[in-house]
Amino acid sequence: MREVAAERGLPVAIDIRRNGHQLFHAALPGSAPDNDAWVERKVRVVTRFGKSSLRVGEEARAKGTTFEEQMRLPPDLYAAHGGAFPLTLAGTGVVGVVTVSGLPQREDHAFVVEQLERFLGERG
Question: Domain 2-122 falls in which CATH fold?
């Protein structure tokens, strides 16, 4: 994931966690400390709701509201914006989160999905 982001010149932070333990973090050129704060906020959404951060935000918008209005969680701690995706094991549930921050939210989300599909495809 980091190699692909670097090859494309993406100004992102990438974060991978298992059960709250940060396993990997990279801040590529062009990313900023704010991206780390966005990572934390997106991770909290996935951890709390067990769904991608984009999906949680989209579900609120589909109901004609916003995540912030619907959930009344502190916006400085939670961000239902694209880029964080749950890592789920069949029969177990969510065991981790992979997050990207630095692009527009739908691009963050699309990059994570693309890279997870690539990883899973390589594993057969």
Answer: Beta-Lactamase (3.30.450)
Contact assessment for residue 70 and residue 56, using Cβ atoms and an 8 Å cutoff: no
**Average pLDDT, stretch 83-95?**
95
Alpha-helical segments (H) within 1-124: 2-8, 33-49, 53-62, 67-71, 105-122
Domain boundaries of the chain, sorted by first residue = 2-122
Using CB atoms within 10 Å of the CB of residue 28, give its burial: 0 to 12 exposed, 13 to 18 middle, 19+ buried.
middle
Q: What is the sign of the dihedral through the CA atoms of 75, 28, 47 and 105?
A: positive
Q: Give CA–CA dist 31/11, Å, rounded.
A: 5
pLDDT tens digits along 52-88: 999 999 999 999 999 999 999 999 999 999 999 999 9
Run of H or E including 94: strand 93-101
Q: How far apart are the C-alpha atoms of 25 and 95, rounded to whole Å? A: 17
